[in-house]
Amino acid sequence: MPSSRRRATLATVAASAGVSVATVSKVLNGRSDVAPTTRSLVQSLLREHDYIAPSPRRDGPVATDTIEVQFDDDFSTYSTEIIQGVVAAGAEVGVGIVVSVRKKIDHPAAWARDLVAAGRRALICVTCDQLTTRQLAALSRVQLPLVVIDPLHLPHAGVTSVGSTNFAGGLAATQHLLSLGHRRIAYLGGQATATCNQARLHGYRAAMEAEGVPVPPAYTRSGHFRYQDGLECGAAVLDLPEPPTAIFAGCDESALGVMEAARARGLRIPQDLSIVGFDDTQMARMASPPLTTIRQPLREMGGVAVRTALRLAAGEKIDSHHVELATELIVRASTADVTCSKRT
């Protein structure tokens, strides 16, 4: 969404403020030898004109280049995996990584302008809600490339994104439980409208339908990809008159919540209840028992996002606006044959 507006220059701002270009430059550089009233006026006009400092000429990536990675929420083990992948990829090409939590954006133009003024070469957003048209337009106007990792909703057609094969992951998780003889299998997912959640749910349903196994309405629940939601939704399905013998949780964190709900009811894992997660974070490996899960290649997704963002920043064309990396079933000790269960 290119803008027809010409980029403002120091001379433009200086003329509007009735001061010299040198004075505007001093304000931009934080010099103290400018009167407070003049500084305030110049800063106001810089914002009004959406002034963006020109990027210095570079022959290639240098240590001062940075990419900003923004999250919508507080960090988790999922976030840590993404960050490690992004940082490792940045180190390989000599690009610094700045990590931040993005809250409400009231002024998209100022948000985009500040990113460029801070020297960002590109922006990576992780599991973000759909960016608004104004936000996308603001990024386009300052020519700041955007890559979205694991988008919660289908992004705008022109937005580049990196994800994983969520449907295949949901299918594999459920097929694993079916292969162990389970038929009463519940799915506890994240936000009902989230694209990744819908894909995992559809994979679950496809596996159940292929085996001719009915899915009671109470066996599928949505919440958020968090421990507390796993705890609450797990409690709800385990208290049903005919509870499941196996649960597929939409992420590792909620799977641990399900584990706690099971323990609170005196159930053993996997003897009384089999549990599968999704992500394969460090949390899955540290769980007791270690969690069977679907490995989502989070670190690799972070690396692909960095390399793609740099290609966009260099003006290169990319083959696809959406890339999906393969998921993989990782079997550990939280699942067992249904014949081991006393709840069948």
From TrEMBL:
Alphabetic keyword roster: DNA-binding, Transcription, Transcription regulation
Keyword Secreted appears in the UniProt entry: no
A GO term for molecular function: transcription cis-regulatory region binding
Protein name per Swiss-Prot or TrEMBL: LacI family transcriptional regulator
Source organism of this protein record: Nonomuraea jabiensis
Ranges for domain HTH lacI-type: 8-52
SMART domains recorded: HTH_LACI
InterPro entries: HTH_LacI, LacI/GalR-like_sensor, Lambda_DNA-bd_dom_sf, Peripla_BP_I
